[in-house]
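Input:
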Amino acid sequence: MDPRPDPRHAGQVTTPDAQPEAVLCDQAVFTSARSPLGPQGYRIIAAGEHLSSRECSEIVTHAPSGDGLCDDAPAAEGLAFYRLSSGRCCVLHSRYAGKEPSGRGGRRTYTLAFVLDEAGFARFHGNPFEVVRAARSLGALNQEVTTRPSLPQLRLPCPPRPGGAASVDRSVAGIGARWISHLAGRLLDGQTIIADTEMDRLALAEAVVLVIPAPLRSSVSLAANLRFSVGRCGRLTVVREDVGRMRQLMRGREVWVERIGPDRGPPAPPDHPWAALAERFLCRGRQGRLLDLAAQFGPDDVAAIDRIVAACIDLDNMESASAAELVDTAAAWLDRRQTSPLERKLAETLLANVRERLESAAGRTAEEDLVDFWHELLALAEPSERAAGLAEPALLTALRRAARHGLPTQVQMLTAAARASPRAYRRLRTEAARVAAALVAWADAASPEEIAARRQLISAWAACAEDSALTDLLDRMRKIGPAVSPTGAEPA
Amino acid sequence: MAITEQYTSSECLICERTNPPGAMLCSACGAPMSLIEEAAIQQRSPRIITILGESNVGKTVYLGFLLDMLSKRAGGFEAIPKGAYSVNLQQSVISHMNARQFPPKTPLEVDHWKWAYYQVRHYDAHADEWFDLLLPDMAGEALAQEIETPQTYKAITGLLAKSAGALVLIDAAVAASGSPHPDYFALKLMSYVDRQFATKRGGKARNPIAIVLCKADYCPECFDNPRAFAETNLNRLWNICQSRFANVEFFAASTVGSLGFAHDEDDNVVPVPLHAAPRGILEPFEWILDRIRAMPAK
Amino acid sequence: MALRLFQRKPHTRGPVSGGVRTAQAFVPAPVEKLASDPLHALCQQERYNVIIQRRREWAEHPDGERLCREAAVRLESRMALVPAGRVTLAQTVVDAPGAPEVDVEVEPFLLDIHAVTNAQYQRFVDAGAYEDFDLWPRAIWPHLIHMRDQTGKPGPRYWRDGRHDQKLAMHPVVGISWYEAAAYARWIGQRLPTEAEWQMAATWRIKSETDLLRRFPWGDAMDRTRCNIWASGIGHTVPVDAYPEGAAPNGVLQLVGNVWEWVDGDLNLTTTEGKPIVAEMDIKATRGGAFDTYFESQATGLFRTGHIALARLHNIGFRCALSIGDAPWLREAV
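Output:
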């Protein structure tokens, strides 16, 4: 146990040209055991050879000793997570394993420690509960080491997608969305919290962890369902203990200690924007979306968390947004410069949604509102090519709908487009050409009086369209009818 | 720093780390801050006598009986507990042993240890001389871990650094059975203690250390001549004591008059103290107090 | 003024004798020259019941009848009658209300007023009893070689050169195993009391309508002035005739305190879950508490405990008993 961590220990096992499928981790067992060689009591009875003595001593100070869980049930479990001074991540899983072998009463606590580097831990989405689930899937939690002093490295399978939804569901049903988001908000604000609850403490701890953006999870040391000890206190401690006593013990430290539960009344809404978003999503039954978002966070996204929250809210609001609101939303996001990958991704999703919804709105807008909607779209489209691209499907849909009103309406719309948003107009050229062709066909069949009646309209369009087809049409119309100046004014 | 100044600044009595006012436990080592408050009331620092020994050697039971005997004014002593918390240990030990049970294992977690702060004096000699004594009951496993990797438990590091003396408990029954383990553990322990008690000049440590051969009811010859027993059965310990410590004495002690065994539902062997017959409890304490009396307070 | 219960004892490194660290030198008891005549030798050895049991042998002896009468008188003076009664023996190690118990009827019997002293036991040693295999169960013969004193001579653990410390002549003999106690009892023509008999003597639960019993020979409350336990502050054994105020109604002394007493019977306690309590060898019952018994609850007439049969401790002694049927010399009036 003395050698320092093997520098060659990469923490990842990869297949060529593929994402890592498993993560190598070191193990240790901390429990009370009788030994014919003499040592008694709680100690590390087995450990991987790559664990340093310093790492082992830190495991000892964090792991629980006899009667170490908050639950009395024989199948009770507890979990802790800490960053070791070596920089590696340590997940402790504790359970009861019979009575104390010393015969002095009490239940023996058996703790398995899994130690992996930060990159490896990230493969579990920063969720220590995922590490334990991976170990459980290998049957590692059911074995009991009694004689072997050296443990091999464990190859933990990486979860293909983030799990833990069941914990969130259970916690929402048990303790409520407000408490979960409240706790998460305090953690995101940098506080240390100790929560006493009768609810499922492991589920609650995992729910709070999952609500937090993934890159921030490894900074949240935690202890769940382990008997309270000041030395074991992480940033998040979930226990079943006398709150008064815990407050006394933690006096002088900036720690929030509270009994929580549905019987305690709802806490104040969280201040932190991400926590407030979490509450919103949890209350609306959108756990999956929330967890997915939290898991998508990368290290560069943390600084942009406020804007990410704003994007999420706008995305969430989109379903019920009016056309005008969609246009406003789109305009706001088109103006914004995204600084983080997730923010960019959300903005793209949002804008894609807007694009789609605008097109849908264009198809559903009342006939009498179509022209007004057309003008809003033109205003949206003009500032940038991107904006124009965003508005294009809606513009096309609206233009095609306008065919029911007749060519003059279409010409008016195209004229407005050419004047207000050359960018948008460029994207409508194909449709404009179709309208122009329809005009030519009409002109061939129209009477000179009809042509004269429409000449000004067409002249206006031609004046700002810079379209040779229109110019040719006007020439023909002039020949057919009274002369019309290129500006569309009647000749003197 | 004068004791009253320590109190104002909330400096831990054990590790001297400054803590926020009102803190109950030291944030660095986990020792109770009530110790420094009590010391300030007494206007003097307590003499710390650290009880050391491996897990299951009997530190808690020994200390519980010692404190109870002192409370009953045995051996010419008068002892007054400072703070209700000081009585918890002896109360737990006495009530369990009276019911023919050993008390539960001392937990590894420092904030679960019991600390006994007593004022003690001897009737016949120096009747006016009161000593403040701090006698913490620590977990043997924590001590073992601290020896293996120093600074794991800062409370232990700090305690020893400030100890006026130490009671080192060794399992005489296991040693008498032929197992070398108690001797090896004692050797490691004394090496660790040597480092903590080391003098600046590099000579032998002068802090008094009482080596108490516990569970001597199993090997009564221990009582006849503890030194001879140690030299024969704990030779490594004996040698390091001769080499590195100037102020060591050997004692034999036991607390159980007769020991039976039963099996629990997991087939673990449960020791049952059929009755209590404390013997040799006061003598090591009396010896160490005599030696400490002659030393200036730290 | 604070009640002083203890005096400071000198811190000595002197030899240990019967649980006492004494600064004074060990003074071996003088050797008693034994009479050559067997009957007179038996008298010297105070083996009075053996004299009576073998009275037919002395029919032709000139002092036979007289010495038999004297033997009966001596026995009457050193033994007391314990009446018939009933005792309840706790079966679990924690004697809580509702815990299983066993009632045992006790027939009247005779019990030594005093525990066996060093002086009395000296005669047993001087008679070569440790080499008399008839006194010992066959299974114990290999262990006889360990039943030695501090100098390797046969005898109690704390003796030297086969002698007791003269200063402790009237103290109860200690440092003897259950087998040694039983052998001595056999040697003097008596036996060890059973556990039920001992408890009857200490609690005096005679058959009556009221069915009263005592926790202590003198009554129901512990009184440290009537016995020698830890709280009495002595710290070592005292002569067997000390504490007359602690006597049972029939005059038996020191049933509680001074030394634990071997009785005839295995300790058959269980845990509250019914698991038997065992040790590396048979646990023989011991009763009464000793000078170092810390808890008053463990120094009562009811408290059941035991030691392994080969334990030779500084705080265990014994006394002898006799069945009525084995005492024909007992007057009819009794």
